[in-house]
């Protein structure tokens, strides 16, 4: 019985480690690599001082 419990625990741990690695990798790319003034066309926003700013009608940083 202890061998089955060990195998299930090992499998659960392997799944947690594998799936959490994907989330951490994606999150790392989100916060790094954007330069000041970068325009995100898909979401109509721009990067300013380490955070996203929504574009308004007369914003010089936003392009069509």
The rounded Rg comes to 21 Å
Largest sheet, if any?
Answer: 3 strands, antiparallel
Number of domains: 2
**What's the count of strands?**
3
Total number of helices: 1
Secondary structure category = alpha+beta
H and E string = HEEE
Range of strand content: 15-25%
Strand order of the largest sheet: 1-2-3
Can you walk me through this structure?
The protein is α+β, with helices and mostly antiparallel strands and 64 residues long. The chain folds into 2 domains: 1-32; 34-64, no CATH class. Helix content is 47%, strand content 16%. It has a 3-stranded antiparallel beta sheet with strand order 1-2-3, with no helix packed on it. The protein is rod-shaped, with a radius of gyration of 21 Å.
How is this fold's topology laid out?
Elements: H1 2-31, E1 39-40, E2 45-48, E3 51-54
Antiparallel strand pairs: 1-2, 2-3
Describe the structure in brief:
With 64 residues, the protein is an alpha+beta fold. 47% of the residues lie in helices and 16% in strands. It has 2 domains: 1-32; 34-64, no CATH class.
Question: Can you tag this structure with a few keywords?
Answer:
64 residues, 1 helix, 3 strands, 16% strand
